[in-house]
Task: structure prediction
Amino acid sequence: MRRHFLEQMTDLKRSLIEMGGIIEYAIDTAVKALIKQDAEAAKTAIQFDEVIDQKEREIESACMRLLIQQQPVASDLRRITAVLKIITDMERIGDQSADISEITLLLADASYINELKHIRLMAEAAIGMVHKAVDAYVQEDTKLAHEVILSDDIVDSYFVEIREELCELIQKNVEDVHQAFDLIMIAKYLERIGDHAANIAEWVVYSITGSHPQEA
Result:
């Protein structure tokens, strides 16, 4: 019985790693489509949202089967709970990647009002957080997870910088207001991706230690 349970937990972990790879690719595709104003790539990124949703449903069902069919001990319950929380944040990252691409489609034929340097840097930081959060789960590495949590401040600071930069552009030319608003929304989605990556890292810590960083 215990051996079968551990095999199922291994399969669950493998599925979560696969979902992590999909969301990383979705974000990367969305950001590249934005920078290059590539409408076709943006459409591809949007299609990933349904793939991610389906993966979430599969993992959620596997977790429910484990809870119903097996007799998990306290530490097992903690790990299963963490997986359920992690896939929720992953699914939301998929949503935000699709949201970025929806805006990219609106901007595909427009000239950008700035070079998107800070948005690109913010996106790199957010993607890095997601990658490290998944690695922390795979490696069961609390130190790496805490690094991800701290990195959220970097992403937040980029958001503030981008918002101020775009507000200055609006003051100089009010006609830029619509695109500036769209770019601020993209930065907000990236900020949320950073938040979700930090959440994933917090649940990684919980799954290993039994203590959630927010409760420390």
Q: What stands out?
A: The chain has six helices and no strands. The chain has a mean pLDDT of 93. The chain has one domain: 2-215. The helical segments are 2-36, 39-69, 74-107, 117-139, 142-172, 177-209.
